[in-house]
Amino acid sequence: MVTVDKSADLKTIILHKRAEYFRHYYAHLNPVDYTTQQLALQRFPCNVCSTCYPTLSATPEFDDFTYTLYQLKPMTSYWTFEAFRAYLRRPTRGTIITILENIAFRSPPKNPERLVAQLLEGYQFEISHTEVEAYPTDAQLAHYSDQVNDYLKRIREREEI
Ligand SMILES: [Zn+2]
């Protein structure tokens, strides 16, 4: 599981994770040879990628939990599932923050502290669309894609030397 700088606020952590996820997504997506793609995935890792870290034994509880979050367009993996299991054993602020660090919200919560408070009460509730930030714009997505493409370009240039 990934733990992030505890001094960063929750919203910052969530936005960083979203950027990390999209760069990783484009590293998977860009049509390059296998070796180059592996380098790109190492350069832009993301622990909530379900391709790299599949959830092999999801439970009905975990399905309910991800359904609760669907408005936030969550990307989850084996590591999210592990964090969720720890939360089920001990639903504390600490275990909840670990869950939030191990999800990429493509449409993040406007107020993550409200989400923490809701999760302290349980994991089945409704999230209103008014509590959800917009999905990244095409320009933001292009920025993430460009960061990966710039890296791939540098690799190609290095190989040509
Ligand atoms: Zn992946």
Domain module count = 1
SSE run: HHHEHHEHH
Helix and strand content put the structural class at: mainly alpha
Tally of separate helices? 7
Distance between the terminal alpha carbons, to the nearest Å? Answer: 38 Å
Poorly predicted tracts of residues: none
Rg over CA atoms: 17 Å
Strand line-up in the sheet with most strands: 1-2
Give the proportion of residues in helices. 55-70%
Give the distinct bound molecules: zinc ion
Q: Averaged pLDDT, please?
A: 93
| Global shape | elongated
**Beta content:** under 5%
List how many beta strands DSSP finds: 2
**Biggest sheet overview:** 2 strands, antiparallel
List keywords for this structure.
161 residues; binds zinc ion; 7 helices; elongated; mainly alpha
Summary?
The chain is an all-alpha fold and 161 residues long. It has one domain (10-133). It has helices spanning 10-29, 34-43, 60-68, 78-89, 93-101, 112-121, 138-160; strands at residues 74-75, 104-105.
